[in-house]
Amino acid sequence: MKITFALAAFTATVSASAPVFAADIVFSSWGGTTQDAQKSAWADKFTEKTGIKVLQDGPTDYGKIKAMVEAKGVTWDVVDVEGDYAAQAGKGGMLEKLDFSVIDKSKLDPRFVTDYSVGSFYYSFVIGCNADAVDTCPKTWADLFDTAKFPGKRTFYKWSAPGVIEAALLADGVPADKLYPLDLDRAFKKLDTIKLDIVWWSGGAQSQQLLASAEAPFGSVWNGRMTALKSSGVNAETSWEQNITAADSLVVPKGAKNKDAAMQFIALATSAQAQADMATATGYAPINVDAAKLMDPEVAKTLPDQQKASQVNADMKYWADNRDAIGERWYAWQAK
């Protein structure tokens, strides 16, 4: 997941009595409530366990990772990235291979495990709506693309990534099992029909603000942001109809200075309890298969992994193989 606002670095609290076994490590993620939860569920617990401070940085920036690796000046030790980027960057020599003698992958959802990455959490693009700002909330992707039935501004993710193109094709009647390879001509033709009514969000916090203020009272957003919005007191309504799943991954950039500690951090972050704590705080699904058993059943049943009736799984391999070509066309279309 990607944002463009700056995030000030801060240092995780560490017990004064905890011994320091290694240098501080730096964890970069997407900011906002998601990174707050990662700090609480993962970084603080890691510091308590090992004495190693975890400095928070961000936002995750793929251009910065490339520049650091090529300059042999890597300052990030563990980074939360989008799953399709992880697959592409691993093949491209940008990442360290993970040490699975330290990280126990036997309990991790195999969909999100590669030689270079493991899942961080997985989420769904859902149709979110501020129910107090409209007469009726859209329930389907076709509704969200229907400006006659649902007039006004709507919000979508700004960046080239799984989600929006799939939503456009589903709205245009493409069956879920026929989405790939993506028909880009058809998708952009459908997107043209609402282009003037789109307000783009570049980060999760912005999507919440757009819905809460009713600047764009409905749109395609990450499910966890709807959880946070509802918790803030907004009358937030979520439609899971054909929710589109994607995942974030944890990676170690090639040449990271604290590789051993980075592996230990990922091992803790992907443990059952850490994943359960993260899922409870965010509404995103855990990638450790034992995590749900440690959660309140009422919370667990609200997560994306329990919304499978019409769920659509974004094809991460397809996106990894076609990421650059899709991105070139996406940004050219936005700029028109």
TrEMBL record:
Keyword tags: Periplasm, Signal, Transport
GO terms under biological process: polyamine transport
Pfam families from the UniProt entry: SBP_bac_8
InterPro entries: SBP, Sperm_putr-bd
Keyword hit for Signal: yes
Annotated signal peptide: 1-22
Name of the protein described by the UniProt record: ABC transporter substrate-binding protein
